[in-house]
User: Fold this.
Amino acid sequence: MSRSPKTYPSFNYKLLLLGVFLAFVVLFVLRSSFSSSDSNQNPSTISPKVPLLNPSAKDLSSTSTDCSPSTTGCNKIPSSLAQTIIHYTTSTITPQQTLKEISVTAKILDQKSPCNFLVFGLGHDSLMWSALNHGGRTIFLEEDESWIEQIRRRFPTLESYHVTYNSKVNEADNLMDVGKGPECTAVGSDIKYSMCQLALKGLPSEVYDIKWDLIMVDAPTGYHDEAPGRMSAIYTAGMIARNKEEGETTHVFVHDVNRVVEDKFSMSFLCKGYMQKQEGRLRHFTIPSHRDGSSRPFCPE
Assistant:
């Protein structure tokens, strides 16, 4: 998840992104309104509704909703969603994933939210992901402490944690060989105590304790040989999904698969056989639990 001040001057792109949010907010308000209306009705006293062919002004006024502060039939959008709309409407910096890439994850969030969403990276799109998972829990993991503080001052509602990555991009080839060993392909043990060199064992306890529905790997930076690479993040995301006890599928997304590390490690440790879609630089994998007694291979044949 890049944090460079790269801008996208396309006005149409910005309007489309804003449209996604507005549609989400409208659906949220309508769903809340219908739920509130249904819960206030007494089934034993409901009378048949006769359609009005030519409703008068009196009829229309009698069915309108009084949205005064004392009524309970009206719903305002949550302040977090309002903040998100305002931010992306007024910001000159837009998320660095394209609209088509964003739409892949947004579609799954529309099906699963509110849910648990783990994101490796904290960037210009973080407020968007949190808003699209409204009512769920979205956690961001970031290696740059100063960037975390900057984002927290601007958006204090975002939940983020500092993490450290010990491997660099130039170690990828060696780690690929390490990852093929039995200590890295064994499933069932707590990843915090894994003997695999690729496993991230020093993450916040929340990462290990929560059962994640979606995981996105868009960090660490990984843009040059001496930078922290995404090898361990990709591997750890896959093992968290495999170790899920309930047997449900975990959706894992990897961004920047146009780069060598993201390409090779996602195919090797999230598995080509589990890949559902690639849109631009984003890949979407669905990884089932490997703890359901089915003796699945690490990757499907």
Summary: The longest strand covers residues 137-142.
